[in-house]
Amino acid sequence: MQAIYDWAQDLYQRTGINLVFIYEEYERVRFIEGLQNTIWLAIICVILSVVIGVVGAWLQGSHFRILRLVVAGYIQFFRNTPPLVQLLFFYFALGKTLENLGVMPMYDAGGWQQPLIGNFGWAVVSLSFFAGSFNVEIFRSGIEAVPTSTREAAEALGYTRLKSYIYIILPLAFRVSLPALNNNLVNLVKTTTLAYVIAVPEMMYTANQIWSDNVNVPEMMTTLFFVYITLVGVLVWLMHRWERSMRVPGFGQTA
Amino acid sequence: MNARAAIPGIAAPANTDLPVLAPAAARLSKNTTRERQEGAWRLELKAWYGFVLFALLLLAIGVAEAQSGGDSDRSLIATLVRWMPVILWINGNGFVLNLLISFFAMAIGTVGGAALGLGQISIYKPVRVICWSVTQFFRNSPWLVLLFAIMLLFPFEVRILGEIYSIPAWMKATIGFSLPVMANLSEVVRGAVQSIDTGQWESSEALAFSRMQQLWMIILPQCFKRMIPPWMNWYAILTMATPLCSIMGVEEAVNLAQQAMAAEDSRPELLAPFYTFLMLVFFIYCYPIARWTIYLERRYTVKN
Question: Which of residues 213-242 of B touch A (CB under 8 A)?
Fold first, then answer.
């Protein structure tokens, strides 16, 4: 490790390329925290949005008209407004209102009161709901793709609606939906940069802090590009592998 | 002989009319493939969104009016009407600037995208590799990172022949927006060219067209029709993305609306009407484009 730090220091002295986040302890900690936050944000949002998608798609098949309407309204709202506006709305309008009303639970953060859902929390909520609204639509198409005869067969075997959803319909629907899901999740990872606007200390925000303190914009920008391209690349590679292994044989190659 | 090849319904046509998967599966698969190639989902804007937004705007105004208690100075309609010209067009800032950015970014993106896309199908491998890499790089970076990069790495003034020209922030934002558009359009061009039947290439070659002639006279005219719907879809997406540059302090509609609210003592009841108004403005502009895209797409697919 020390050798790498020395190399970065040496590089700076010889060429002026200032990779400060490698050789300086303080910036290194900051950088790694930013990277961790981005990765955490991405992972939590991906999982939550898939859960929202699965649950939402199930609710859309509900017998209650009102429930279906609520889900439809949710999808339309989140699909058709920019994620930036959603993020600002959740954090400033909803978050602050809840705090002012005293509904938001607070915890003691070493001397001052902090809301339980801070900016990271709201970023997770907002981005998950944003991606979730697309996922509901995707899973719904997947469920529609399961033939009625399969559904009737499950019913004939005595499955309840929930059980047939979990054991029969969803496994099939999931395979059909996976490619579309991939597209959306890759988009989601790129959208996590937006958390910058509500000051979540993720990669983008940390990089901004580092270049503000050290005036090394080109170096940090290159690093930022490298980090995001790597993140997206890894995700795409993983998802494609998964897609290939989950593919319904004979379906969708020619399309 | 591969044993799998003989299995009906998997590699060979199924000898039953029972559906293995309902038509929705094929639809989803088609949309996904298209989305992957075009790099964005199709905007599906419906007319009733506009009515809902308008109703919300009226509702928000009503609520705020009730809260202001009839004080004509703090009346919400008066406030909104007072700021409307500022948010929309005064000094060429506001929504007009959003449109300006979207026009220029689209123009640069189209020219660059066409060049990159044609580069991707070049017969020279180095050109192909370079164009492919550039496309992938800009396609896979987040918009905000690209925007930041251009905003901070571009000089704020240039010296040409001894004269110093300053580059305003919105121009840099335009370049920042044009990069992802360029990369995505490059893929659209490549996909469109590759979707042309190989017979077209072969027959034109047999008629002694040079490669340049083949491209310009045979292939591209056929691609053109297929590229129009994704191109328009990208324009609508780009327009809706322009408020991103408000983060960098470009005085476009969202930025000015925020400034206006700050100037009005940041009254919380202003939030809902102002943002709904902004959304309505963007909707009114993007709705016809989205509808027209769908119309053109339908018209072209029927003909094929």
Answer: 240-241
Task: Scan residues 107-146 of A and list those with Cβ closer than 8 Å to B.
Answer: 134, 138, 141-142, 144-146
Nearest Cα of chain B lies from the Cα of A9 at a distance, in angstroms, of 23
> Residue A114's beta-bridge partner residues?
A107
pLDDT over threshold 70, residue B6: no
User: Does the CB of A149 have a partner CB in chain B at under 8 Å?
Assistant: yes
**Alpha helix locations (H) across A63-169?**
65-80, 83-88, 96-101, 119-144, 148-156, 161-164
What residue of B is the nearest CA neighbor of A81? Answer: B279
Contact flag B19-A149 (C-beta cutoff 8 Å): yes
Question: For residue A255, what pLDDT is reported?
Answer: 38
B20·A251 Cβ contact <8 A: yes
pTM given for the model:
0.81
- What are the backbone dihedrals phi and psi of residue B157, each rounded to the nearest 5 degrees, phi first? -150, 150
Q: A251 vs B25: CB contact, 8 Å cut-off? A: yes
pLDDT at B165 over 50: yes
pLDDT confidence of residue B52: 82
DSSP, collapsed to helix, strand or coil, labels residue B166 as strand
pLDDT at res. B304: 46
Reported CATH class of domain A32-246: mainly alpha
Please check the confidence at residue B51 and state whether its pLDDT lies above 80: yes
CATH of B97-250, one of 1.20.1060.10, 3.10.580.10, 3.30.930.10, 1.10.3720.10: 1.10.3720.10
What is residue B1's predicted lDDT score, i.e. its pLDDT? 43
Our CA dihedral for A57, A61, A67, A72, rounded to 10 degrees, sits at 50
What are the domain boundaries of chain B? 48-94+253-304, 97-250
Q: Which residues of B touch A192 (CB under 8 A)?
A: 142
Beta strands B163-166 and A106-108 are unpaired
| CA A242 to each of CA A169, A174, A178, B21: distance values in angstroms, whole numbers, following the listed order | 19, 12, 9, 20
User: Given a cut of 90, is residue A96 above it in pLDDT?
Assistant: no
Looking at beta carbons, which pairs linking A102-109 to residues 24 or more positions away fall under 8 Å?
none
Average pLDDT, chain A: 83
Q: Which of B4, B10, B16, B28 to mutate to test the interface with A (most CBs of A within 10 A)?
A: B28
Cα gap A121→A173, rounded to integer Å:
30
User: What is the band of B74 on the pLDDT scale with cuts at 50, 70, 90?
Assistant: low
Section B123-134 average pLDDT: 90
For B254-288, the pLDDT digits (tens) are 888 888 888 877 777 777 788 888 888 888 888 88
